[in-house]
Amino acid sequence: MALTTKGKAGLAVVALAVLGLALPVSNLVTPREKLEVKSADPRYREVSLLLQGSCADCHTPNLTRYPIYFELPIARDIIGKDIKEARQELIVTRQQLTGEEPLDAVQLGRLKEVIEDGTMPPLRYKLMHWNAGFSQKDRQTLLSWIASQSTTYGIKPVPETNPFSPDKRKVALGKSLFNDKRLSADDTVSCASCHALDKGGTDQAPVSTGIHGQKGPINAPTVLNAAFNFCQFWDGRAANLQEQANGPVNNPKEMGSSWPQVVAKLEKDQAFKKAFSESYAGGLTAASITDAIAAYEKTLITPDSRFDRYLAGDRSALTADEEKGYKLFLQNNCVSCHTGVNFGGLSFEKMGRRKDYFAWRGHPTEADNGRFNVTHAGSDMHKFKVPTLRNVELTFPYFHDGSVSELPEAVKIMGEFQLGKKLSDQDAGLIARFLRSLTGRLPD
Ligand code: HEC
Ligand code: HEC
Ligand code: HEC
After folding, report:
1. Tens digits of residue pLDDT in 355-412
2. Which of 2, 97, 236, 287 keeps 20 to 30 A from 172, CA to CA?
3. Alpha-carbon 67 to chain mean position
4. Cα–Cα distance between 340 and 300 in angstroms, integer?
5. C-alpha of residue 387 to centroid of ligand 3, in Å
6. How far is CA 173 from the centre of its chain?
């Protein structure tokens, strides 16, 4: 379409507006008082001031009074989009900047990664804000502070004793229910059919098989240490273990049953009914059955892995190669997503953050949408709850699509698609060796 004179004039205004954006005059228009830092850690003051100077405009809500040029249509679109996307990736709250609340493990790992890679703040922001961005010295300050917070970047051992302390009698009932095929329509499938403890809490199959031999759409994650996850299912659609346990019973492709049907069957079992009503005044109901199952699942933790012994100070618990693999895991920033007690389970992350995994793999499925299927927000497309890496040598095949059976290959895919790095066979092999040291004492 040919441009009218009016259109050209409009374009000129736009061009001026864009130029105006790049003008550092805006530095003068947007002086902002720095928040007072109240942290007990004297080094945090400097860290916070650096973050406030270069990062907070985009990553901290309710802080910045946006400059006048923000009101120009194009500027508002560009900056608004930046801020929206920035906050989908990382939020650092005001209370964290002042030091009243600590930064968590995922945040620390993320900061380490972008500071090392030098990817933040975005270039166009640096054009506008001369003082933003870090000198070599600033980077050192930040990185050494992050390392001083936790040399393991938030990785923690599985506690020796169950931190959730569920009621022992409920645990016993839950264990029996977990292994009870009467929870399925035709008495052929129990929870344990797809989550066998001797298979690392999975079925070691790409996708699960439910009643009548039906195949499901997604790989079964482990129930081991699931209690440490911030929510349940790949897409996080259940808030906790009790809510999760509602799913499979009613799922036509898994157990194909319903609570009235299950309750009716269990009611006929007088011994079980009696034992059950000793723990639950209301007797057998969907709520009490799922509560008992969740109580049992909370005990399915795997302490005492060789890696945890190493963390506790026994340097001989890992071989030299496994130790190298651990260092590579930290250096390559795998830890920015796989951290905490579970080496994961703390956040949703996009599969294919650095490169399109789904275009590479082909054959898209609905399950590939991940978190999007729950929220229908475009930004949640292809996001999954980061899976735990505990006992990962037993939980093959890997990924939500169960597409990879060898651990070193899964590690290389992570390097390429999550970190934008081609890991050598040797490094991927060393990392895989380290990951095999995460197998803990399996519950019986
Ligand atoms: C102009 C706004 C802006 C500023 C200032 C800014 N960021 Fe970002 N940040 C973004 C946007 C947009 C994204 C998401 C898109 C991307 O990753 O480029 C993002 C993503 C991130 C991520 C996720 C990383 C990733 O690659 O997935 C981290 C971590 C981050 N920023 C940290 C920082 C830190 C630390 C600073 C200060 C040095 C900073 N940001 C300054 C806009 C900003
Ligand atoms: C037919 C196989 C099958 C059966 C039977 C089954 N599950 Fe699952 N389970 C799966 C699959 C597949 C998923 C992943 C589904 C998803 O994320 O969309 C899953 C997910 C889970 C999760 C979430 C773990 C995580 O990290 O997100 C838990 C916990 C779990 N199941 C427990 C149970 C319990 C308890 C039962 C019995 C009431 C049960 N499962 C029955 C296949 C099964
Ligand atoms: C940006 C976050 C992120 C980073 C960085 C990351 N991962 Fe992952 N990891 C994920 C997500 C999300 C999945 C699940 C992807 C899927 O199933 O489609 C995953 C899955 C895995 C799995 C498969 C686990 C299973 O049971 O299916 C392994 C193994 C793994 N990652 C190891 C690593 C290693 C090693 C690194 C570093 C080289 C790494 N990850 C870096 C987010 C990340």
Report:
1. 999 999 999 999 999 999 999 999 999 999 999 999 999 999 999 999 999 999 999 9
2. 236
3. 35
4. 17
5. 7
6. 31
